[in-house]
Amino acid sequence: MTATPEAVATDTAVLLEAVTKVFGTDDAAVHALRGVDLEIRAGQFAVVLGPSGSGKTTLCNIIGGIEAATSGSVTVGGEQIGERKPADLGDFRRNHVGFVFQFFNLIPTLTARENIEVIIELTGRGDKARVTALLDAVGLADRADNFPSQLSGGEQQRVALARALATDPAILLADEPTGALDLDTGRQILGLLQDLRRQGRTVVLITHNASVAQIADRVITVVDGRIESTEDNDSPADASDVTW
Ligand SMILES: Nc1ncnc2c1ncn2[C@@H]1O[C@H](COP(=O)(O)OP(=O)(O)O)[C@@H](O)[C@H]1O
Ligand SMILES: [Mg+2]
Fold it and tell me: Fewer Cβ neighbours under 10 Å: the N or C end of the chain?
């Protein structure tokens, strides 16, 4: 367990300093992040907004310990993860982050309940006695025994959200979670993310949609691997007002 560095305020959930990420080498090198500084405070709902290919997913994966930065400092939940290899970050991921992806990534051969239980078993975090409550919180208590193929896209994403919360992560990372959903269903997911923020959870939402970005407290705009702007929003829009 790494101690919280002196320089990092305890209410800082995510702090990136001069982070770069290069994929490949020489002529094939892709500079996905070109020196990113950003801070997300605990309890904030932050959106990372930017066009396709701007580096959003790379940024999200570095914050979540799925990918290592090429250089720079990365502190998440008080732990310096920086250039540590993803293979060495299993404990970090289990203890700090929950992920939601565009295409849900549920295990097709497991029911909704089992998809959540397996994460509790694998991580040793969370409580199987709470699975029904987790499904209830996303409005799916009555679908616990359905397989993903028996659920709509929006329902699958709600299961994925319940799964991400099963380990009680300090930070929820959601990479284009509404990208595969229609407007009404997507709004429900965004509404659930706003509920989490009201409950004090730190939420980082990745999107290419400027309308979606309006529901956040902090909008971090990424263009071509750099932060173009960071804006705080005192009166975030309600998820029901989002459009695409
Ligand atoms: N594993 C990888 N290998 C090579 N290039 C990659 C890899 N992942 C992402 N990239 C490149 O990095 C850039 C940023 O990608 P990404 O972070 O996925 O952007 P976004 O999520 O904003 O669409 C793109 O040019 C993309 O092609
Ligand atoms: Mg992406």
Answer: N
Round to whole Å and give the CA distance between 32 and 208. Answer: 16
Within a domain: residue 3? no
- The boundaries of the domain holding residue 160 are 12-235
In this structure, is residue 240 part of a structural domain? no
Kindly state whether residue 1 falls inside one of the protein's structural domains: no
The CB density around residue 152, as the number of other CB atoms within 10 Å, is 12
CATH number at residue 113: 3.40.50.300
- Residues 5 and 1: their CA atoms lie apart, in Å, by 12
Residues having CB closer than 6 A to ligand 1 are 23-24, 30, 32, 50, 52-58
Closest atom of ligand 1 to 175 CA is: 21
> How many domains are there within the chain?
1
Ligand 2 centre to CA of 55 (Å) is: 7
